[in-house]
Structures are given as C-alpha cells and as structure tokens.
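Lab channel / #folding
Pinned by the channel admin:
"Please post every new chain as: sequence first, then the structure tokens as a reply. Keep commentary short and put observations after the output so the thread stays searchable."

First post following the new format, from NK:
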Amino acid sequence: MSVDRLDAAKTIARDAGSMAMAFFRDLTALDIQSKGAQDLVSNADLEVETFVRAKIAEQFPDDGIVGEEHDDVPSSSGWTWVIDPIDGTANFVRGIPQWCVILACIQDEQTRIGVIFEPSTDEMFWGSSEQGAYLGDTKLCIAQSDGLHDGSVGVGMNGRTASHMAADLISELSARGGIFFRNASGGLMLAYVAAGRLIGYTEPHMNAWDCLAGQLLIKEAGGRVEYQNTSDMLRVGGRVITGSPDIFDELLAMSEEAYKV
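Reply from TO:
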C-alpha cells in the first residue's frame, strides 16, 4: 500500500473540494452543458478535474489517470488514479449540497485507495486495502440489520439503462417493507453504505470513477460488493450491488430480476 498516495489523495480531494465550493457559491457564473438525459457537465467539473490531474502529475508523474471529463493518461508505474471531480453535478448546478469529489487508486487491477470528500459537510470518507475505512479519524462499520425492512437502500438510476429497472427494483423493495433513498450522487450513497447510514446500494450501471472508491470503503467496513473485473469497469462500467452481509443476497436477487433487459 502506498501511504504517500493515500495522504496525497486526501489532500488533493480536500483542495479540489475547496475549489469546487468557490464555484458552488456563485452558480450564476457556471457554464452548464448537457451530455444526455440528466447528465450535465459544467466548467466547474472541467476546471476541478484539470486541477486534480495537475496535482497528480506533479507528485506522481508516472501514474496513469482515468477521469470523467478528460482523456486517459497511461501508467508506467503500475498505479492508475480514477477520478470524478464533482459527482452529483445535477445537484451541484442547482444549488443542492449533495455532491462530492472522488479519487481512487488502482494497482494490479485492484483498488488500493479510495477517498470521497463531501465539501458541503466537510466529511472525508477514506480507506485503503486491508487497512480499514474511516470518516475523518473514526473507523467505519457497515450497518447491522434484520432485513430490508430495517433500514434504507440507496437506488441509482441513469439515462444509460432502461427506465423500468429502477422502478421495478423500488416496487419490489417497497413490497418487502423496505425504503429507498436517492440523492443523485452514487459516490455519496456508496460512502453512506460504508458509514452504516444505508444498508445497501444498487444501480444497473455505474462508471468506474463513480464507484471504485466507494466499493473499497464498503469492503473495508465489512460490507459485501458484487465482484467486477476492474479492466472492464474502467473500459465500459458495469452493475453495482453492495450492502450489509445481512441483506446482500436478497438485494442481489432482487436486482438481478429488476435489471433484466
């Protein structure tokens, strides 16, 4: 594990969050463009990602970078950073304080470091492989529950998958006495699972920069995560299902049924 990279990731995420907050406080100055249904990008996303990339290149010039808004940088060190400068842009551009900066580091096709920083609450979720997951200095632990009726499940949706999928999942979840939660930031909802605020999270498709950091935090906090091939996730993204060991199998079965094409 690279302690230097972990420390750097936390510092870069906090600095990027401060930069993003400056934009957030003056939304009238944003230049907002649509990439598709409910998929927005602003000059804040672009400038914050440029800042993050510059900091990584300055400190780790041989590391690769994969991000949402700019072209990939190949790695010659064996390490690759996967970054989302502002996850929850739809919230960000409308003044809703539910968005975050996400950084993950991969080595040997394994996520080794994950950092999710929510500037609006000054909450720093972070962790590293086999070293635990934390909120600030407090170690995280997955929620304990008696079933889907005992807690809320984060449900993600996007314009890349069939519209019925999330609706079918929510309908079945409700029928089993469960409650769904959605705040339009998949990264934050995954962090909330790691922190025990949600008992699970499911989405038919996520990009690597949205989910790799959060999935690591959940595993380090004692949760379960559906296996994914990291190379495939970096290339095309994939399904994300994760949660407390108490409800994971049931949530997986429900998701498989709801997400049928």
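NK: The longest strand covers residues 79-87.
TO: also worth noting, DSSP finds eight helices and 14 strands in the chain.
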